[in-house]
Amino acid sequence: MSCHLHDPHGILSHEHVNVIYAGSIQLADTEGWDLRKRLICFEDGKQTDRHLTAYVDFPPMFTILDSGAFSAWTKGKAIDLEAYVDFIIKHGDVINVAANLDVIPGQKGRQITEEENRLAPEQGWDNYQKIQRLLIKKQRGDLITRVMPIHHQGESLDILKRMLDEGCTYIGISPSNDATTRQRQKYLDIVFGHLESQSKRILTHGYAVTSEVLMQSYPWFTVDSITWIYVAGFGVIKTPMGSFTFSEDPRSLKSKDNLRVVIDENGEWSIMNAHYQHAKEDLDRYVREELMMDVMFLAQDYWARARANMLYFDWFEKTAAGKKRMHYDG
């Protein structure tokens, strides 16, 4: 048995990429947002357990469970594989996808050896098979098809071929966080070139694919991103016109990457980049008519910015991303 799409409530669209929203948040904080596509992390422990327990009181969702292997690796910790399996079983009613328990090579803070790089995907594949055996042993073999193997940038293409030989039709793809966009594109060109040569269409999930360029350039079925909530903490909202940093205090604006919006003591606001002064009217209209908010509210309220970013990604996935769609044929 191998990983296949499990979406009994039809949450996901086959017409465009689906953005899955990562980040540690309470469902109550986003009640009424129609935020029905979530990625949560097992490594968060009891907090994740509370989140998933609460899902029964909300409308059906599409939920990806990430093992948290990378986060644990950065802390020098290890994740107990059997505890992870027990967690999948406990919340099997609300978990649509559970990421394999990958093995991150080496230790944080030191040079990774070639041997560690070679062994890590093999150990990860061993974990994938161990999870399957444990699910059968614990009489939940029905959950095997929800466990997703993941191919990482830097791994041999043979690892990906192994997943396909196993019969997987829904596979995780993980570009390297340390690579440049161009380096990621070279990796993804190879991966998708191989996937598109298959007789059966393969659905892909892009782990931490937050770049709009990457989302637009490849036929992802799903991607997850923490950008929507992460940048909100820095005063940023993403819009079809670009990213804007909102603040009531111009001294707090350190970012040079975004257009800066400053509000004076009278509540009047302006864009601090002269080249984009013409965008003020369009931005004002977007905030009022599309977001149904106002600039002062965005400057003052973290959750307003997070919601604005969610609405941007909702727009992006339907209108700007997924130009090269792979249509799943069953």
Instruction: Report strand %.
Output: 15-25%
Sequence of strands across the biggest β-sheet: 5-4-3-2-1-9-8-7-6
What is the helix fraction of residues, given as a range?
25-40%
Say how many strands there are: 13
Gap between N and C termini: 16 Å
Total helical segments: 11
Radius of gyration from the alpha-carbon trace, in angstroms: 21 Å
Mean pLDDT: 84
Sheet with most strands: 9 strands, parallel
Uncertain ranges: 249-253, 325-330
SSE ordering:
EEHEHHEHEEHEHEHEHEEEEHHH
Structural class of the helices, strands and pairings? alpha/beta
- What would the principal axes of the Cα set say about the shape? globular
Topology, pairings included?
Layout: E1 18-22, E2 37-41, H1 46-54, E3 62-66, H2 69-74, H3 81-90, E4 97-99, H4 114-137, E5 147-148, E6 150-152, H5 157-165, E7 170-174, H6 181-195, E8 203-206, H7 212-217, E9 222-225, H8 227-230, E10 236-239, E11 242-247, E12 259-263, E13 269-271, H9 280-290, H10 295-300, H11 302-319
Parallel strand pairs: 1-2, 1-9, 2-3, 3-4, 4-5, 6-7, 7-8, 8-9, 11-12
Antiparallel strand pairs: 10-11, 12-13
Structure summary:
Helix 3 packs across helix 4. This protein is an alpha/beta fold and 330 residues long. It has helices at residues 46-54, 69-74, 81-90, 114-137, 157-165, 181-195, 212-217, 227-230, 280-290, 295-300, 302-319, and strands spanning 18-22, 37-41, 62-66, 97-99, 147-148, 150-152, 170-174, 203-206, 222-225, 236-239, 242-247, 259-263, 269-271.
